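Researcher: Re-running this chain for the archive, since the previous output was lost when a drive failed. Same request as before.
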Amino acid sequence: MPRRGEERPDERAAVRLHGRLAARWARQTVERLRRERGGINAINVFPVADGDTGSNLYLTVRSAYRAVEELEGPATLPQVVAAMAEGALRGARGNSGLILSVALRGVADSLKGIDVPDASDFAAALALAAARAREAVETPVDGTMVTVLDAMSEEARIRAEAGDDLVSLVAAVRDRSREALRETTGQLPVLRENRVVDAGSSGIVELFDLLHLTVTGMDPTDRSQEAPAPAADGVQEAEPRGLAAVAGLLRGASAPDPATGLELVAHLGERRDRSRQLRRALAKAGGTSIVVSWPMAHVHTAEGGGADEAAALLAVLDSHDVLDLRVEDLATVHGPVPGDEADDGEEAPPARVIALADGPGLLLSLALGGALAMRSDGHPDDAALAAAVRERAADAEGACFVLPDSSEAHRALAESLAPRPTRSRRGRASGPRRLQPRLIRTRDAASVLAAVAVFDGHADADDLLEDMAAAASGTRSGSIVLAAAAQAAGPLMYSLGDPLTLIDGRVRAVGADPAGSALDLVHRLLGAGGELVTLIAGAEVPADLGAALCARIEEAHPHAEVVLVDGGQRSSWMAVGVE
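Model: Regenerated structure tokens:
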């Protein structure tokens, strides 16, 4: 104990950043961004004014913390940060969320093997985070997250070279981050016009404010007051006031025009990292807001772009084997955040539907319908597919529905999605109880499309289950496949390449040409009635042939509406559904 008149040592100088503090910070980031996302959304004007940056950052850090929850036993700092990076990448939403996941990956790679970093280690981690974030963006722009990360990294380098301890360095970087955030208004014209700071950068500053609190025990919103020094295993938690609520006011500026276009987020199956090549190819295809962190890619169509422009971007993405795809209409008014319980308890979390498909056109059609579209033929076996679906289903907070595109996939998923306990790293059940995914008996592409067509994420879950199941079961379907081998015995004999008509998985007829077989199949299915015919053209169907078939069906059945989907599947030459 120091004597009277002696200087009391600064206990915070002995604080060490370790796994337990990092896990606490990860948990607190979720609550912080849950509270502050509305203020961040309100100032979101770049790269598009779609008002979702705060929500995207919140969903990303929520996924990051879930990965930390899955760690077992006492976790080291490298384990916690690596789990956060992996979880953030898996659940990244929007370009802001993907950039954040890239930055976390840089921190994780830099701190690999370092259980307790010093100031130099921390500065090196920030440097790699900033460099990775800038590299991931095809066209970095000053006044954005990459600018603020650069400023924070440079401040950390200067402080580390000056010999500052970790606490002093973190405090200095925190101050510089706030200055850099204010500077974004003058660096980017759209921010200056609307008199706001950059939304994504404000999220970064929020998170670093919270890290400052975690490491130092100080309330980051009140520099005149200090919280008690942290105990050996952690810090006193405080209730900070949100930066976005103060700095993120429009202050009377006119609201920006709403964004238009489509946002695509894809998970790629190619193992080799071709980020640079993909970014260039997406830009050449007309993409904007391009961020790639292998194996995740984020891109917008140009303003006003629709399904055709999205298809062109998807073709580029699919050259690297798209495994799953989400599409969001940027003009859509954003509703409740998925997985969020409303503060008054009146809003239920939106439902999610996971739809399987085996062609890029089908993926796009399903994703445009609001589904998370997953590639059923992109995994080595049924077990791997089931594991991937289970992982995506685990991210859903509300009701989750799974639509297999074959009887084989249904059998594999029925076992995989059976209830199983979820334990946290402390052995307790992790988070709120999650609803069990509901598997709907969709047997082919046509019934999957029919079910997604009636999907409404805000409908009552039981009503939604009934509606999608009814739509799937009410669809009569069949397909035309080209024989992979000759069949010389049995009631139906055919040669290699002959068109076969399949209904309920059984060969019902052998035709002379695929187009004629498809037309006969439509006639057969419409024999029992129907008002809507969906033709799903496979990868080998010429574009003009699909349109010609539609014309012939409309002529023969004027009461029926005909829809042509360029599915691109290889499992069939053409699939047909009648409702």
